[in-house]
Amino acid sequence: MTLSLTRAHLMAAVAATLVFTAVGARADDHETEEAWRLFVADHKQPVVRAIDFADGKELGRYDVKGYAALTVSASGQTVFAAQSDQDIVHLIKTGIDFSEHGEHRDLKVSDAALLPVALEGKRPVHVVPHDDHAIIFYDRGGVAEIVDEAALLEGKKAQVRTVDATKPHHGVAITMGQHVLVSVPNTEIEPEPDKLPPRIGLRVVDEKGNQVGEISECTDLHGEAMSARLVAFGCKEGVLVARPGGIDGPKLELLPYPSDFPKGHTGTLLGGKAMQFFLGNYGDDKVVLIDPDSSEPYRLITLPTRRVDFLLDPAIPANAYILTEDGDLHVLDVVKGEIVRKGRVTEPYSKDGHWRDPRPRLAAADGQIAITDPRHSLVRVVDAETLKEIRTISVEGQPFAIVAVGGSGASH
């Protein structure tokens, strides 16, 4: 498989990277400023910390209600701290604000803060950022909410669009133009007590909530990602890809797994930003590169041990980082489709046990990789090229979930 963009296009592609990770152009009449921040959730304590990436100093400590999964908005201005066990999503202003001005962009840096508004619903799990909004799916509420980021930053829960998910299930919803892609539960079986029904497919609904077309099969739908104008979902049968379809709504196509693939399927997906492709898991010890426009869309990469976490570097489009349970960090060249180097970055963390046990998580910032090490109360900072540890940042408790926000731009 060859990805749609070759290595020769990479330098041009970097300019198209997401605003909160790309390098901004310098305007002749302004100075260039750079700022990076980490947001780290603790594994046991209900707290999220904001940390200055440059000096490791804590900028803020925000009390929440429980274990928090962190998601950054598309603009990089907001971190969503979803606490599924507490039926609430808290919102943190990152204090990193980019605005486009023709040939350059401006960077405004302000204090990070816990916003005075929260989103409440029964078991919020999936938060999907997209353009100027985010979609929160409530597993036990049977609904998804599309919320406007600008209103949230003003401390208001305004302009909320509710999407019916037919009945409670562990699902997801994603917008595509004026349409919404929504997972479909099996309504013909009665789930076990305290269990949610399995997912069987995906449907498209219009602005009025009416279904458009037929339900597309996607057994045990789990994992979603966006790349360019495409959206992909993991299924037992393959990967389901949605493409914009104009007034008639998105077009859905299932890419079946190759017949010579070992038993397994994809349940976690990441989407390329400067290049159109997807990276997914395939079982515990493999990953798969997916190019929906190729005649052979799948390329399987076998890992030496089970995967703990993986990440695409939005500022270095060819790089994906995969941390395995032996403590090695692997660099996957997504153009070549192969592991090009590896280095030991933590001591081993076994995948045995509960899926939510404290294990390292990855974030990319300014050509470096930040790795939480909950066992040692550290964030380890590793050079993306050499995979050597540059420094450590001490973080009280058990640092777990982590996201990075930042970049450079013209300052006034």
From TrEMBL:
Recorded superkingdom: Bacteria
InterPro entries assigned: AztD-like, Quino_amine_DH_bsu
Annotated keywords: Signal
Signal peptide: 1-27
Alphabetical list of NCBIfam families matching this protein: AztD
Protein name: Uncharacterized protein
